[in-house]
């Protein structure tokens, strides 16, 4: 191929864009490859031409990917999207310009993604966007999770590293879950609330090998990164998928997640979201009394008032779990609805799935991913997930009184408004509060009443008679519920503040750096304030 021909000039221009430092050298290498018949090209030829950015991919290349790289189309795609370190983001720009964001990447872009991964360009994470230090492009997989999350499963199938980190050390699972939480927030979803799409994304990443606990460069696990940046619902999803609370692997001081969260409560910007996750972690097995290498327990890092709240929460969770397991093992007599087959569809389906999970050893208090899948599927089919039972009780209460508190919480997460007035103006909070006065139901009714606060439940709303839910409670329960309501309100406000501070460059630039470390402002997540 002559570099003075039309094809040669086109190749030279492409190489000038791809490699301004040595365009002639790249043009000569590419011309040599293009002039060699496809059947005679070898991986060694590609290696000599500098096609492999990560040479470890050379030895691991699948036959299908090797064939793609060695064909004319593969070389053209490499030149277009992989030759220059800053070219891979243009793949998504091209997709946007051409309106090509389908559930699966279209063939040409799928080939381009495979080429990027086959040559190792997906490992690039330090390409500057501007002259500002630390302002760099996200790696390919992280960028995909932000702008084309529907393609992320394909990218992982093509061989992208599920544990790829950014230049500042943030793992893919934290970046992707934060991006999904951002999208949900833009759609009006609460940052503190669980969502089926978060479970689906987390399960996809975990199934492809993403670690739920691998720490960032600062030593903070993904749960910590998400929580301190305001993404509390996303953080809990990782706990639900198996992220451990009590291991200190990789931590120099032997600190568990509970230690890190407790430590972060000492920092004003993170105190509420960190403590919120600390309390949530209790029902996922988090042990606040495990000592670190210095013999310090996580609970001892908390102020006395918070430590007291932890003990009350531990007691409530333990009692609710014990009572739920007892009721599930010794079910109450079937209702008329169950006998004559008129039980609301959502209650029947969730009870069956929750029973299956409990029989398999799952905790009845946890909102399992499969419960979200069942409820979401029913709602998509047009089923009213909030239809009342014949006795007037809502499904949340009906499921909770049978011990299936996790299933009841899933409905709370999916309900548009748990303060909607029902019979005589009573809200769900009124129903739950009244149930606490019945000895057999009091324990898990109290648990669900406190859980509902997170989902917007307001116990101070009056019914038609002028009575609020809180008036049905004992003095002790009123104090605990009021404390919980104030705490949830402040946590929601702080989560939004943290999110807005991360998005706002001016606010972000004025934040006081922690003594331990500070994350460069362009990273998708700041590292935790807790000492590693």
From TrEMBL:
<dbReference type="InterPro" id="IPR036770">
    <property type="entry name" value="Ankyrin_rpt-contain_sf"/>
</dbReference>
<protein>
    <submittedName>
        <fullName>Ankyrin</fullName>
    </submittedName>
</protein>
């Amino acid at each position: 191929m002559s570099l003075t021909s039309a094809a040669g000039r086109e190749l030279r221009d492409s190489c000038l864009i791809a490699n301004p430092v040595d365009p002639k050298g790249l043009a000569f290498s590419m011309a040599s490859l293009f002039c060699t018949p496809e059947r005679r090209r070898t991986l060694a030829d590609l290696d000599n031409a500098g096609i492999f950015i990560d040479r470890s991919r050379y030895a691991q290349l699948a036959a299908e990917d090797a064939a793609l790289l060695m064909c004319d189309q593969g070389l053209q795609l490499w030149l277009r999207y992989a030759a220059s370190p800053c070219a891979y983001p243009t793949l998504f720009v091209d997709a946007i310009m051409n309106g090509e964001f389908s559930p699966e990447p279209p063939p040409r872009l799928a080939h381009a993604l495979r080429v990027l991964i086959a040559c190792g360009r997906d490992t690039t994470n330090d390409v500057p966007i501007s002259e500002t230090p630390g302002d760099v492009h996200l790696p390919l997989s992280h960028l995909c999770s932000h702008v084309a999350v529907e393609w992320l499963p394909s990218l992982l199938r093509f061989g992208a590293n599920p544990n790829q980190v950014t230049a500042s050390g943030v793992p893919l699972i934290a970046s992707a879950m934060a991006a999904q939480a951002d999208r949900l927030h833009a759609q009006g979803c609460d940052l503190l609330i669980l969502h089926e799409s978060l479970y689906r994304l987390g399960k996809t990443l975990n199934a492809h090998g993403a670690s739920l606990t691998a720490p960032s460069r600062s030593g903070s696990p993904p749960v910590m990164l998400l929580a301190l940046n305001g993404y509390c619902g996303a953080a809990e999803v990782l706990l639900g998928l198996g992220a451990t609370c009590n291991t200190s692997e990789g931590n120099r001081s032997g600190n568990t997640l509970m230690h890190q969260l407790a430590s972060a409560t000492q920092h004003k910007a993170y105190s509420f979201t960190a403590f919120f996750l600390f309390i949530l972690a209790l029902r996922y097995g988090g042990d606040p009394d495990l000592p670190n290498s210095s013999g310090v327990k996580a609970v001892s890092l908390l102020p006395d008032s918070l430590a007291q709240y932890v003990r009350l929460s531990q007691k409530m969770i333990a009692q609710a779990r014990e009572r739920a397991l007892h009721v599930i093992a010794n079910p109450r007599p079937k209702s008329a609805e169950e006998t004559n087959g008129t039980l609301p569809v959502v209650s029947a389906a969730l009870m069956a799935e929750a029973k299956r999970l409990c029989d398999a050893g799952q905790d009845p208090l946890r909102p399992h991913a499969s419960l979200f899948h069942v409820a979401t599927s029913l709602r998509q089919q047009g089923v009213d997930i909030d239809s009342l039972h014949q006795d007037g009780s809502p499904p949340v209460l009906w499921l909770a009184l049978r011990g299936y508190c996790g299933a009841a919480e899933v409905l709370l997460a999916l309900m548009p408004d748990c303060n909607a007035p029902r019979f005589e103006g009573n809200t769900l909070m009124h129903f739950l509060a009244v149930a606490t006065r019945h000895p057999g139901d009091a324990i898990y009714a109290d648990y669900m009443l406190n859980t509902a606060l997170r989902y917007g439940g307001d116990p101070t709303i009056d019914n038609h008679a002028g009575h609020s839910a809180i008036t049905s409670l004992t003095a002790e329960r009123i104090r605990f519920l009021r404390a919980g309501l104030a705490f949830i309100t402040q946590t929601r406000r702080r989560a939004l503040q943290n999110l807005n501070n991360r998005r706002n460059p001016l606010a972000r630039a004025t934040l006081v750096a922690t003594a331990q470390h500070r994350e460069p402002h362009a990273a998708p997540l700041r590292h935790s304030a807790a000492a590693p």
